[in-house]
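Before relying on records like the one below, remember that each one covers exactly one chain. Contacts with other chains, cofactors or solvent are not represented anywhere in the record.
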Amino acid sequence: MAHQMIPACLPPREVGRPKQPLPPNACDTHAHVFGPGDRFPYAEDRSYTPPDAPLEKYLAMLDAIGFARGVLVQGSAHGHDNSAMLDALKRQPERLRGVAVADADISPATLREWNRLGVRGLRFNHFFRGGQLHYRGGVPLTAAEKLAPVMAELGWHLQLWIDVKDLPQTIPLLKSFGLPVVIDHMGRTDARAGTGTEGFQSLLRAVGDGWCWAKLSGAHRLSQNAPDYPDARPFHEALVKANPEVLVWGGDWPHPRVEGEMPDAGHLLELFQAWTPDQAAQQRILVTNPAKLYGFPH
């Protein structure tokens, strides 16, 4: 069977160093390591081919911006093979934590082993475009039902890639798992829709109630107005106002499958600083909250 062309992603940009230094133990909670492909092959059935973005490049990015800590999220280009991410955790046990991808039939023993290595959650894909899951290689939310008891035992969270338009009808299912839920990329809505939509308002209520976390990431996925994404700012500000105690920040390096201009993770961090003028809120979102969510030493 002929494969459709798998699009290749552009490499990430050199990151700028923020003018305002980060506090000690600041954590970037959303990035990916990819490859190197000869050691960690990409999944055959994938939605994109990333540039090799191995651990060394990722650590150089953290160092350039000033992050002491980082969280690696399994990217769909590697499908359900978490080897590249787990290898990075083994090599940097103090500095890194991970969010993995797993099928419903994975053994509890494997999850416990991953926990020992620094995995703190599982990511599920509930992101649809035109009625179809947008990324191949993700795990549907239905698998969480079987995995939830072991996840709860390990103190893990459920990370969800969803467009908030589908959140209202998904909330009862999410609550039934009894796990902390972390919503990617501010709900991955289109900035042009504005913050008043039923979906985004349901995210604000869930965050306000405290059972649901959100990543203040992906301004470049909500907005096409690079490099400052002004139309993404109201979403950020609404979430900070709703409840800064359940928010974390992530740069989304190396920005796979980005639609539009390649962002600079250092500049995205400067936008976070500008959009979160309250220093106490910055400290909470960059240091305190990720330490709690990912189990870093306080």
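Strands lie at 27-31, 69-73, 96-100, 119-126, 128-129, 132-133, 157-162, 181-183, 212-216, 247-249.
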